Amino acid sequence: MSRIGKQPITVPDGVTCTINENTIMVKGALGVLSSQLPSEVQVNCSDDIVRVERTGETKRHRAFHGLYRAIINSMVIGVSQGFKRELEIQGVGYTADARGKNINLNLGFSHSILFKPPAEITIELQSRTAIVVKGIDKQLVGEVAAKIRSFRPPEPYKGKGIRYVGEEVRRKVGKTSG
Question: Model's pTM, two decimal places?
Fold first, then answer.
């Protein structure tokens, strides 16, 4: 048995789970998420518990068992609490400015970068060097944060660039005179 897949998902108050054929829909205070279910898994929604069971014992069935349990759990957490990813900008003159829902990034290039997030994502600027990406879809929040980070990933010599809060950047020794 999959250790992850066999754990039941507890649904908090205010969150409803419905299954139509091979689609699961989770509604909560923050929004609605839905996902297609493969034929390898079967989902049972009772009052406040969701259980994921597999229909066979092949390697593919076992893999999807844990995967879809984790996806449904992320959907339940997303519509009840939401997800956020925090980024920080380091470097002299590297800044971020809000332009409505968009952000304008000055990252040492000859031009500034105007980033337009998807409609489901909100981006907050805590300061000119601190960015918070929020949303209900865990995958989309991580994808948008990775896209912002990819504009100027941290470099190993001075550590300048955009990094996740708490990310360790391995530093290299610079030139030495010898």
Answer: 0.89
